[in-house]
Design a protein that fits this description.
By secondary structure, the protein is α/β, with parallel strands linked by helices. It has helices at about 10-20, 45-60, 65-70, 75-80, 85-100, 105-110, 125-135, 155, 210-230, 255-260, and strands at about 5, 30-35, 115, 120-125, 145-150, 185-190, 195-200, 205, 230-245. It has a single domain, classed as Thymidylate Synthase, Chain A (2-Layer Sandwich), CATH 3.30.572. About 40% of the residues lie in helices and about 20% in strands. The strands form two sheets. Strands 1, 2, 5, 6, 7, 8 and 9 form a seven-stranded mixed sheet that branches. The two termini are about 30 Å apart.
Length: about 260
């Protein structure tokens, strides 16, 4: 059964979801839907919670921070510094040089570079979506043609066969174990009443280690698309088909419950 958690800002909505998961059987739930009306707004209490969660995450993981997680979805610092299109090449150069061995890279990488088998060249799916919104603003586009998939058929099908074709590839997916396929399954942008909305679908979502950073990264991605298209920013929706409160990322079950009690 789906569980809807609506609100105005990212951090209060995420925190409500975490507190519900902490009381759920097995600290898991199916089809948790977060509906955030103003995803780029952040208040003083939100910043306090952000810093506390970041510190808790750094204390109990080896190389994880909220900024690190957000950066896998959108390199906001590079965009602010170099703008579009300059930040694309700088990011792709940096991520290819710094990618960990045997990792599949980042969502942002797959959004910015895909190989076209028809002509043997790479292209930028994310920039094509921006251009679609620009065309739509000028009366030349449609409301619902802004999809970014994450998986290719090879990621989903063990034994071959026909499957759904998606927009963004995982590099050499056949060489990786199935358990390492990305948790983000699909991004769907929409043009609605002059606003860019974004819906993200996760096959599995880890709310201690990943979800808050994911939501911030998604909001930065959404703001980028809207800003470059000259449109307003609409709601952000996150659908976790499996939501998990991964308490080990915060020091265990008892530490997690205690930590949550300290947050406003």
């Amino acid at each position: 059964m789906a569980e809807l958690i609506p609100g105005d800002r990212i951090i209060p909505v995420w925190l409500e979801a975490v507190r519900r998961l902490d009381k759920s059987q097995g600290r898991t739930a199916l089809n948790v839907v977060l509906e955030i009306a103003s995803p780029t707004r952040m208040g003083d209490d939100d910043l306090q919670i952000w810093r506390a969660v970041d510190a808790q995450l750094r204390a109990h993981t080896s190389d994880m921070s909220l900024d690190t997680v957000a950066g896998t979805l959108f390199p906001n610092h590079l965009y602010k510094r170099f703008g579009r299109p300059g930040f694309y090449d700088r990011y792709l150069t940096a991520i290819k040089r710094g990618k960990k061995k045997n990792s599949w890279g980042t969502y942002a990488w797959r959004m910015m570079e895909r190989f076209d088998r028809r002509n043997g060249k790479n292209f930028n799916p994310l920039d094509r979506i921006v251009q679609k919104f620009i065309d739509a603003k000028n009366g030349q586009g449609y409301q619902a043609v802004y999809e970014l998939g994450v998986l290719e058929p090879e990621d989903l099908l063990e034994n071959g066969g026909d499957g759904p074709w998606c927009e963004l590839p995982v590099a050499d997916p056949a060489a990786k174990p199935r358990r390492n396929i990305p948790c983000l399954s699909h991004l769907s942008f929409k043009l609605h009443k002059g606003q860019v909305t974004l819906t993200a679908v996760y096959r599995a979502h880890y709310y201690a280690q990943r979800a808050l950073g994911n939501l911030i990264g998604l909001s930065q991605l959404q703001r980028f698309v809207a800003t470059e298209a000259g449109l307003d920013i609409g709601p952000l929706t996150s659908i976790s088909t499996l939501a998990v409160l991964d308490v080990d990322s915060w020091g265990g079950a008892g530490a997690t419950t205690t930590f949550l009690s300290t947050l406003p």
